[in-house]
Amino acid sequence: MAIRWTRRELIAGATLAAAAGSGARLSALQSVTLGARAPEVSDTLVVLFLRGGADGLNMVAPYGDDDYYRLRPALGLPAPNDARSSAAARALYLDPRFGFHPRLAPLLPLFHNGQLAVIHAIGSGDQTRSHFEAMATMERGLSHDTGASGGWLARHLECTAISPQPPLRAVAIAETMPDSLRGASAATAVSSLNDFRLSPPVIGKRPQATRTSALTDSIREMYGPTAGGDDLLHSAGRETLRAMDAIARIDPNHYRPEFGAIYPKGDLGDGLRQAAALIKGDVGLEIACLDMGGWDTHVAQGREIGLHALRLAELGESLAAFARDLGPHFGHVTTLVMTEFGRRAAENSGFGTDHGRGGCMFLMGGGFVGGRVYGEWPGLGPDRLEGPGDLRVTTDYRRVLSEVLAARLRNPRADLVFPEYTPSAPVGLFRRLA
Question: Which of 70, 88, 117, 133 has the fewest CB within 10 Å, making it most exposed?
Fold first, then answer.
């Protein structure tokens, strides 16, 4: 006997496994993204948050600043032309002032090809040096952890929403929804695309596959294109079907990276591989959010080897594989790599670094002027540091975010996305905004 579902059973019992990522059990018809982007926008923004306060002075070493070596006698990376040090330990030349950490070597071709830029001495106005408060500040698009609620990406999605909406407009590939997407109806959190499926309630002893197939058929019958109805419930039902069809078309279980891309093992490589599958699957993805932890290096941080170097190796290899895998899509994808704050300018007694202020940000993709280290360098001299001895913030992170939104996602309303921010002169990443 075929399984038949009532409308009440459908709404009350059917859940998308992906809803677990948002911290709530939502009905299959409630958990669908309800937003859209303008049809002429074909770009995707990937936001990777390095949680724990990544040491920008080790990621992009200011080897041209003599005070760098005074403050970091053990951790300071040798200059690219320092013949006294092994080649494996030296910073990789970016310009006469700055060099990549050697474990970021996979990103060097992207930089020199103009497909990657660095913004140094960047951050928010937060002075607490608390992970929780600094992350909340940035993800809400604020200067300090006060004021507007909801995330900056959520506000972008809401102020650009139209109908009809793509089924997967904004996706966080994470266990929980990041604060940057909090408040957005057009967002879904999922730890794996393989988990994005209908999970019907148990009835009798029928197998999961049989129940799922019957549930899908019932949704198509009640809310499919021929079912009629223009209310919110019918719209959500149709979007549920579109989301399911989009994931089925991608077939994440059998996705294979292209163009020789090899992702390293680990959560970041897996997450970026799934982001590439969504982008190339043409499901209308506009925003993808990912996290990478392990950056709170108070002790045993290391120089060219050590804890920090291991994280940088995974970061560099993962981003380089993502860029290669995207192939012709790369020019329509902007990847933003950010962190809540940098580290103290001076190394500590445990050969690590403590919480600081100014950090660095990476921008990768097409459409901007790459191959440069942006930002006003404040210097590391005793009279140039702030607070207990931190790199001074000279670029408000919202300057970069607002430029990216305007140039890549066609959203010039920085006043709505960052309600407490008055844009200053553009950083100059995009020629048309300079």
Answer: 88
